[in-house]
Amino acid sequence: MTFDQIIRDLKNKVYHPVYFLIGDEPYYIDEIADYIEGNVLDEAEKGFNQCVLYGRDADPDTIIENAKRFPMMANHQVVIVKEAQDVKGIEALQPYIENPLDSTILVICCKYKKLDKRKTFTKMLAQKAVLFESKKMYDNKIPDWILKKLQQENYSISPKACVLLSEYLGNDLGKITNELEKLMLNVPEGAEIITEHIEQNIGISKDFNVFELQDAIGKKDALKANRIVNYFGKNTRSHPLVLTMSSLYSYFSKLLQYHFLKDKSQNNVASVLRVHPFFVNGYQHAARNYNIKGVANAIGYLREYDRKSKGMGSTGNVPEGELLKEMIYKILH
Question: DSSP states of 127-185 as a string?
Answer without folding.
Answer: HHSEEEEEPPPPGGGHHHHHHHHHHHTT-EE-HHHHHHHHHHHTT-HHHHHHHHHHHHH
